[in-house]
Design brief:
Length: 313
């Protein structure tokens, strides 16, 4: 499997589409290099706006452009848009129902050694609680391309979070995805594993290791956090009887919280939420941080086996 950076995939795709549609605009916050959006600015300067380090201004400006019929993509660090510009996203974008897509790059702990100031560990919790705002976390390049096609066809305010590093290609080229529908990659009856973003590959690794030990896991890519695919979640939670969520987000309010809210109301089962703990994280690469907090394939597999054995007792 090859690897690609989703921020680069987005930049190439939106440039390709914007050449054919002059109503597509990109707004950036002094992050051309980080967002890999420099080619867009160079080739389509009349459809590009740079506001400097001013996320609040970027979102409000984008909302104004959308209000007069433009299709606007605001690109920059997820950590800053989800905190500094939260009021503008809530009011100017979602409440005002403007066709603005917030592309939060380097989500989770992607910025690594830059530390807690650049981590976005609470963005999903906030974004999914804002009415009229969709929340999407793509898992690979082919899914990212399909999602951009979908975003271009709809006018729904949306937050899309992508990581910084290259991720493995998991899905086939030209495979299509529907916002609001999860994708089931493995089917097994011992445990249901719900995952999103770059940790999908790690979840598949857990399923493989479980298989080697005689257990069959279901793996579901919940790439749309909102609207969430309630039917699929309930179907496989009922079939498996125990579940696990894996995400690059705080253990509070993210994918785990979303799954738990559904299960506790309609199908209560034991659920382990694997994510980033509620404490200061060490500075380091994403892999180093994952290792430090127990988000390794081996440790996640051990936890899954414990849950499966407890279910069978």
């Amino acid at each position: 499997m090859g690897k690609q950076k989703l921020r680069e995939v987005f930049s190439n795709k939106i440039l390709e589409e914007a050449k054919k549609d002059s109503s597509i605009f990109v707004v950036c916050t002094d992050s051309r290099g980080s967002a890999m959006i420099g080619d867009f600015a160079e080739k389509l300067p009349k459809q590009f706006v740079e506001v400097g380090i001013a996320e609040q201004n970027a979102v409000s400006l984008a909302s104004g452009l959308a209000h007069v019929g433009k299709k606007v993509y605001v690109v920059g660090p997820a950590s800053f848009y989800s905190t500094r510009a939260s009021e503008q996203i809530k009011v100017d974008v979602a409440y005002s129902n403007n066709n603005v897509k917030i592309i939060g790059i380097s989500g989770g702990i992607s910025y690594g050694n830059l530390g807690a100031t650049h981590h976005s560990l609470q963005d999903i919790a906030f974004m999914r609680s804002v009415p009229n705002l969709d929340v999407i976390i793509p898992s690979d390049a082919n899914q990212m391309r399909s999602i951009v096609d979908d975003l271009l066809r709809n006018e729904k305010p949306t937050y899309v979070r992508v990581g910084r590093g290259a991720v493995s290609t998991i899905y086939n080229q030209n495979e299509t995805f529907e916002i609001g529908k999860s994708r089931v990659l493995r089917r097994g009856s011992d445990i249901a594993i719900f995952v999103c973003g770059q940790l999908l590959e790690r979840a598949l690794g857990v399923a493989d290791l479980l298989k080697n030990k005689g257990y069959d896991a279901t793996v579901i890519d919940v790439f749309t956090i909102k609207p969430i695919d309630k039917n699929t979640i309930l179907q496989y939670s009922k079939m498996c009887g125990v579940g696990m969520t894996i995400e690059e987000h705080s253990i509070y309010g993210g994918l785990g919280g979303a799954i738990a809210e559904i299960l506790i109301q309609e199908n209560p089962i034991p659920l382990y939420i694997a994510g980033l703990p509620d404490r200061e994280l060490p500075n380091g690469t994403d892999v180093e941080v994952f290792n430090a907090v127990g988000l390794t394939i081996q440790e996640l597999t051990n936890k899954a086996i414990t849950m499966i054995k407890h279910k069978k007792e």
